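Dear colleague,

Following up on Tuesday's group meeting, I ran the structure prediction for the two-component complex that the binding team flagged. I've pasted the input sequences exactly as they went in, so you can double-check that nothing got truncated or mislabelled along the way. The C-alpha cells for the whole assembly follow below. Feel free to forward this to whoever is handling the docking comparison.

Inputs:
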Amino acid sequence: DTAVSQTPKYLVTQMGNDKSIKCEQNLGHDTMYWYKQDSKKFLKIMFSYNNKELIINETVPNRFSPKSPDKAHLNLHINSLELGDSAVYFCASSQDMGAGGQHETQYFGPGTRLLVL
Amino acid sequence: GQNIDQPTEMTATEGAIVQINCTYQTSGFNGLFWYQQHAGEAPTFLSYNVLDGLEEKGRFSSFLSRSKGYSYLLLKELQMKDSASYLCAVRGPGGYQKVTFGTGTKLQVIP
C-alpha cells in the first residue's frame, strides 16, 4: 500500500544515454512534483503538474521532459545525460496545489539515485 | 523570490531539547512547512504553520512569526532516531505557487 512509488530506485548509466524514471501515487492527489536533490542535499523543484497540466517549470534544461498520462502518474525522461545530472530525484504529490494550507503537504517517493558515468 | 536560511549542522544530547531556526525573506508568504529527512530516505512531513504562534504535535512543536520572517522547530526529549536533516520550506502567495525548501539542518543526537 505504498503511497508514492518510483522506479527504478537506482540508475547507473553512461553519459549521453537517455533514461526515464516513473512515478505513481495512489493517494488520489491532484498535484505531482519532481525534485532534484544534489550532493549538498539541496532539494530543488523541477516541475509540477496539477491534474495532468504543467503548472511549474523551473529553469531546467530541455533535456528533461516530464509526462503525465493521468493524474496518478508523472514520469521524467532525460535525454543526453550529463555528469551533472547525477543526483537523487524525488517524486512527490499533494492533495491540491492551488488550495493552500495543509492540502499542499507533500508526500515524497523513496527517490531514484541516478549516477552518470 | 524566496531566500531561506537554516544552520547547516547541530548536535544535541539524547533526552535534551533542541531548537532549529529558520529565517526567510520572501516576496509573499502563504505558509511554512517543516520536513524531516533521514539519511538515504525521502523527506516526511512534520508540521505546517500559516498563522503566528506555536503548533504542538507530541514531542515536536513549530513556531512562526510572520512579521520577523522567522520560524523554529522544537524537538523535546530527543531520541537517537531524531538524528536527521530538518528542512524548512516556504510557500509563496497566490494560486499555484511553488514551495521553496531551505538547505536543511543536519541534527546529530549523541548519547
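The first strand of chain B starts at residue 2 and ends at 5.

Cheers,
M.
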